[in-house]
Specification:
This protein is α/β, with parallel strands linked by helices and about 350 residues long. It folds into 2 domains: about 10-250, Aspartate Aminotransferase, domain 2, CATH 3.40.640; about 250-340, Aspartate Aminotransferase, domain 1 (Alpha-Beta Complex), CATH 3.90.1150. Helix content is about 45%, strand content about 15%. It has 14 helices and 13 strands. The chain has helices at about 15-20, 35-45, 60-70, 85, 90-95, 110-120, 150-160, 175-180, 185-190, 215-225, 235-250, 250-265, 295-300, 325-340; strands at about 1-5, 50-55, 75-80, 100-105, 130-135, 165-170, 195, 210, 270-275, 285-290, 305, 310, 315-320. The strands form 3 sheets. It has a 7-stranded mixed β-sheet with strand order 2-8-7-6-5-3-4, sandwiched between helices. The protein has a 4-stranded antiparallel β-sheet with strand order 9-10-13-12. It has a two-stranded parallel ribbon with strand order 1-11. Helix 7 links the parallel strand 5 (about 130-135) and strand 6 (about 165-170). Helix 1 packs antiparallel against helix 11, helix 3 packs across helix 10 (about 215-225) and helix 12 runs parallel beside helix 14. The longest helix has 16 residues, at about 250-265. Bound molecules: pyridoxal-5'-phosphate (PLP). Pyridoxal-5'-phosphate binds near residues 59, 169, 171 and 199.
Length: about 350
């Protein structure tokens, strides 16, 4: 099977498995796990944040980002296609009591003008307070696009000027950094709190990290406990995270190159529309003109290629650790066979 459903399916490397087996462990709820502590120190240093906490998932990272930055009855501004708005089972409302104000954008990149237009007037007691805003970089549903650093800085400055805190859903922040050849800390500097995933392109079996100031992370610790996400000998996972930050970041460029090859090949197939300008990282979205996405997906699966569909005619393929250039060529052949059958 060539599994292009998501980068979350990437398996840990042999080196990760070895490190997991031999990791020095302790109880992370007591702050005793030396491997977790080392990972948090490395991650905070890398992203230029004061403190960090290990959490089970990117979804929890976004719940923390909402809860730490906004209070009950307040509002969080988010892109209308953002993961936090679409795919997190209304966690902001259900868990943190925060309403999301969705803002429609062209590509997930919010302009200072759009931000200004979305902020509630502070002096109107009928309206909620716009306490925080969240940006997603790379932006999943908008095609894995990268926020140009200048645009992210401008949006962050605008949000701060309106008195809002900024949370960055950086589930794939390292893809964003590699794609535009900037340091990950430069991206993270645009936000007060950041979450990133170890279990996507970085190929760890599980885990994300939430970062911010010492006070933010203190609050996040309380929320992690409240949500049942405080785990014990988490060093078995953190050990893989340390290898990931050391060995799996630079290789994301291979995934991006494979995604590009895949997208260019797809764009040449009759009955496929693929906006190559949006293929900037490891996600490839494309539209089918002659068959439905579920039918196409089923036919590809029968021939050994797994993908995901996100609309009646919209497909997504994702490249990751474990997908080779040859796999990409084989997948393209399968797509061609399915479309010409
Ligand atoms: C942009 C983005 N944010 C957050 C998440 C949530 O991550 P997790 O699946 O670890 O909860 C995802 C998952 O795909 C994502 O794509």
């Amino acid at each position: 099977m060539i599994d292009l459903r998501s980068d979350t399916v990437a398996m840990p490397s042999p080196e990760m498995r070895q490190a997991m087996a031999t990791a020095e462990l302790g109880d992370d709820v007591f702050g005793d796990d030396p491997t977790v502590n080392r990972l948090l120190e490395v991650a905070a240093g890398r992203l230029g944040k004061e403190a960090a906490v290990f959490i089970p998932s990117g979804t929890m990272g976004n719940v923390l980002g909402v809860a730490v930055n906004a209070g009950r009855g307040e509002e969080l501004i988010a892109d209308a296609q953002s993961h936090v708005f679409i795919f997190e089972t209304a966690g902001a409302a259900a868990l943190a009591g925060v309403q999301i104000r969705p803002v429609s954008t062209e590509s997930g990149v919010m302009t200072p003008e759009q931000i200004a237009a979305s902020v509630r007037p502070r002096d109107d007691p009928h309206q909620p307070i716009s306490a925080a805003i969240t940006f997603e970089d790379t932006h999943n549903l908008h095609g894995g696009i990268v926020w140009p650093l200048e645009a992210l800085r401008a949006a962050s400055d605008a949000a701060h000027a309106h008195g809002m805190r900024v949370h960055l859903d950086g589930a794939r922040i390292f893809n964003a950094a590699i794609a535009q050849e900037v340091g990950v800390a430069e991206i993270a500097a645009c936000a007060d709190t950041v979450t990133f995933c170890l279990s996507k392109g970085l190929a760890c079996p599980a885990g994300s990290i939430f970062l911010g100031s010492r006070e933010d992370v203190e609050q996040a610790h309380r929320w992690r406990k409240r949500l049942g996400g405080a785990m014990r000998q988490t060093g078995v996972l953190a050990a893989a995270g340390l290898i990931a930050l050391d060995k799996m970041v630079d290789r994301l460029a291979e995934d991006h190159a494979n995604a590009r090859t895949l997208a260019e090949g797809l764009a040449e197939l009759p009955g496929v529309r693929c906006d190559l300008s949006r293929v900037q990282t490891n996600l490839v979205f494309f539209e089918l003109e002659k068959m439905t996405a579920p039918a196409f997906n089923d036919e590809c699966a029968k021939r050994g290629v797994l993908g995901d569909w996100s609309g009646p005619a919209r497909m997504r393929f994702v490249t990751h650790y474990g997908i080779s250039t040859q796999d990409v060529q084989a997948a393209l052949q399968v797509c061609e066979d399915v479309l010409s059958a």
